[in-house]
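Example 3.2
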Amino acid sequence: VPNDNIDRAIKRGAGLTGEVIDYTEIMYEARGPQGSALLIECLTDNKNRAASEVRLAISRNGGTIADPGSVSYLFTRKGVVNLPKNGLGEDDVLMAVLDAGAEEVKDNGDTFEIHSEPADLPAIREALKEAGIEYDTDEVEFVPSMQVELDVDGARKFMKLADALEDLDDVQNVYSNADFSDEVQAALESE
């Protein structure tokens, strides 16, 4: 390979050529083991490469590409804030964020998860700040409207599929409706 080609490729990769790289956001839908559904959010400068890599990862790991709209109806776009309990009760958090537009506060063991409409997310952050409550993350995510319980074998296959997708450079997020019971999680961790 000529040195000029190598130098040009290095400059292009480092963003030194002055070219404007046009990134496109793409959403793929897939079916996983035991009826699980996945939404794969990609940000790419090459749609063909992203489509090929996502399809390959899905088909090699026991999933199938789904038609547009056949999986996305199972998810709702929500603002999601995660925060550590730090001695707080669910009522404390609910009182702080209810007037800001929070729809739900879920107790996830050692953390709370607040769901809202995406447009209400800034108001919820501000309400938490005013109440002196620190939070870990705040993002707009796709939240499943119903979850599918997987057994140990299905969970193992699902994790392999999700890991393969998350390892792809263009994949930003993988959302799923898969749910693992405590027994299934314990079985997976013991392997």
